[in-house]
Amino acid sequence: MTLPQIPNLFKVPELKEKILFTLLCLVIYRVGAHIATPGVNVQALSDFLATSGSGTLFGLYDLFAGGAFGRATVFALGIMPYISASIVFQLAGPVFPIIEKMQRDEEGRKKITQWTRYLTVVLCLFQAYGFAVFTEQLPGAVASPGMGFRLTTMLTLTTGGVFIMWLGEQITERGIGNGMSLLIFFSIIEGILPAIIRTFEALNAGTVGVPMLLLMVVLMTLVVAATVAVTVAARRIPIQIPRKVMGRGRIREGQKTFIPLRLNTANVMPIIFAQSLIIVPGTLATFSNVAWLRSLADLFNTTSWVYVVSSVVLIVFFAYFYTSIIFNPVDLAENLKKQGAFIPGVKPGASTADYIDDVLSRITLPGALFLAAVAMLPIVVANVIGLPFGFGGTALLIVVGVALDTIQQVQQHLVLRHYDGFMKEGRIKFRGRTR
Asked: How remote is the C-alpha of 288 from its chain's centroid?
């Protein structure tokens, strides 16, 4: 993006309104993420997460809540209840044929969206109650524990969770970009500035030298560049659409197009699933005095090789699992067959489905290995080289993916109204296509 092209964002009235509305919603979201829940000692909760919560589910939850969980705010649940509800119905499609049928129909999708909202409210109630019980167990975290505190917390956090869900839907409908993704994006971005300040404080204190700082900058640049490259990378499968007689002797010329299969189809979900599973021992050990459970938690400490190897295996497994859930080669092959399109050299129908499945399986492996490398990079660098390199993992993949998706939508608004594009030459290559 160049400076002369930035004013183009506000030359389109519709786009200007969308951007300003999105920014307003994000400001409201971040303001609410700093309003404390009644009856909770925020300092006690923050101290616990700083000392014992980094390797538990609470630390992972706090990442997506943008620190709102650690600050015990009214938005402490963040967007996670809605995401969890969406994943439940997404995974239920291949299991229950009626839900899979509804996912293909416009009215069915609206009904699933409504069910997702109801499930979000239920999850908010359960998670809010769990949050209240969790804070009561921390020394000095709750001034007046009991049922009154639990009911108040359930009401406050559930209201906050539902409001966040509504805010995200409003951004998606009336703003720019995907609302839910943008809420997570800005929650993560908020933590970058404090990290930069801590880095310069360490530099001034002599803890980090200039050569080490330069090495960190180089590593960050390479990781971001590689993440962008893999995010937009796609395997193009050529598609041939035959000629058709349009009537009155007119013949429509056959078309050649392609199906872009993303190298990283599952996106960041394999890392989330793997981390959620592997940090369960540490979470249970936090509130338990069982010796074998604490030994198991120490074995899966983030600095151990067992944690690294197990994480890599789980990420690769969940990459294939989640890809098989969200991408159905059989349906794609049937749609191509109905349209009369075909892959050159491949028979329509089952052969096409097998070919697409084979290609998808081959490209999923390097994508999964890259996900594992990005997730484990901060740990490996910190343990082997000794650099305080906390850049990578889930947060980086979310930030890059959401940023590219938002830029793509802005680009489309500008190009449709004949303005110069958001990027150089007014074009952007994204996920195997030139927009």
From this structure: 31
